[in-house]
Write a structure and sequence with these properties.
This protein is α+β, with helices and mostly antiparallel strands and about 350 residues long. The protein contains ten helices and twelve strands. The strands form three sheets. A five-stranded antiparallel beta sheet has the order 2-1-5-4-3. Helix 4 packs antiparallel against helix 5, helix 5 packs across helix 9 and helix 6 packs parallel to helix 7. It is globular.
């Protein structure tokens, strides 16, 4: 992907990198989410005569562009020859629904930034006012306002991290760094670290596994992000009474299945179909937390995809929800050099992930 880096940063998304082989269109790389991104499938692209013609003419003439009215959207396609037999095509989308979803996202994002910023500013103003009036400023006062400032700073950092990581993945710069490690111990350790945060929301967390040790290849930092996001999601959509989160791991020779199950408010069938869509925020009046940008679960799906895995969800309204992650049960021959340090910032990561729950 590095050889396309300059092109991808200069041009709109989504993109495909394709070539012709025996008069067949071959897709080498893409950042398109075939279900949710621009509502086209790999088959739609491969069987489209005009897209094939664009690749052919670009290879012959070095540059080309066209507008294609096909499939479910109207595209302005632009292309560039990137090697002797490869072409990059990027899609400029003219789709009102797509634009609307981005507009809604920006509107939600503005609100998400303003809320914590207002709380930070108001806390600082109250501190300054008490200092200016030479009033007694107790330890409890200081602790209260600093807690508000700290928590809402984490909320802003979470927003920035999600937007930044989501954009990097879309542009093909994911910094995916798998290493061979014990996935059982790793996830069990996360459950132990997060237990106090879960308990503070009147919930319990249980870890279960069908094997005590299993070394596979995975990116520790990204897997931690996936698990923390799904646990915080279970807390957000809990019932008002006591709830439970169950993290379980099963495996076979081909795959490892990681399930995150809760007994919360559940998800309607209509919303299940949209839950991994980018920029889509599910407004459920039964939810205790009614805020969000619509990036979280879309980002989780992208992080799972980086592991060559898949994530699915099932739910029964008012009773339970279960996310199931399936990743390959394999060991890498060559490991990446990772920068993950568990003890250094695990608590900070938990505070960031839970920052929009303690509001």
């Amino acid at each position: 992907m590095d050889k396309y880096k300059n092109i991808l940063f200069e041009n709109p998304r989504p993109f495909i990198i394709a070539q012709l082989e025996n008069d067949r269109l071959i897709i080498n790389e893409t950042n398109i989410d075939y279900q949710n991104n621009i509502e086209i499938s790999l088959r739609d692209i491969k069987e489209n005569i005009k897209i094939k013609g664009l690749v052919e003419s670009t290879l012959e003439n070095n540059s080309d562009n066209m507008t294609i009215k096909c499939i479910k959207n109207k595209f302005n396609l632009k292309s560039k020859k990137v090697s002797e037999n490869e072409v990059i095509i990027w899609f400029e989308i003219e789709d009102n629904l797509y634009d609307l979803s981005k507009a809604n996202f920006l509107s939600n994002l503005t609100h998400e930034f303003k809320t914590p910023l207002n709380l930070i500013f108001s806390s600082v103003q109250l501190i300054n006012k008490k200092i200016e009036n030479a009033r007694t400023f107790s330890y409890n006062d200081m602790e209260k306002y600093l807690k508000i400032i700290n928590q809402n700073s984490y909320r802003i950092l979470k927003l920035v991290n999600n937007i930044s990581d989501d954009n990097r993945i879309d542009l093909g710069h994911s910094n995916y760094s798998p290493t061979n490690a014990n996935i059982i111990y790793f996830i069990e350790d996360i459950c132990g670290s997060i237990e106090p945060f879960v308990k503070s929301n009147n919930m319990s967390i249980v870890f279960d596994t069908d094997i005590e040790e299993l070394v596979i290849s995975f990116d520790m930092e990204k897997m931690e992000r996936i698990i923390l996001n799904l646990i915080s999601n279970a807390v957000k959509f809990r019932k008002s009474n006591e709830g439970q989160i169950i993290i379980s791991i099963t495996h076979n020779d081909e795959f490892v299945n990681i399930r995150v199950n809760d007994n919360g408010i559940g998800i309607s069938k209509d919303n299940i179909e949209k839950i991994f869509e980018k920029y889509v925020r599910l407004n459920d009046e039964r939810s205790i937390i009614k805020e969000g940008t619509g990036i979280g679960l879309s980002l989780v799906k992208s992080l799972v995809n980086l592991h060559c895995g898949e994530i699915t969800v099932d739910s029964e309204i008012g009773k339970w929800t279960e996310f199931n992650i399936k990743i390959p049960n394999k060991i890498s021959i060559e490991e990446s050099i990772g920068t993950y340090e568990k003890d250094l910032d695990r608590v900070e990561k938990i505070r960031i992930e839970f920052s929009d729950i303690y509001a």
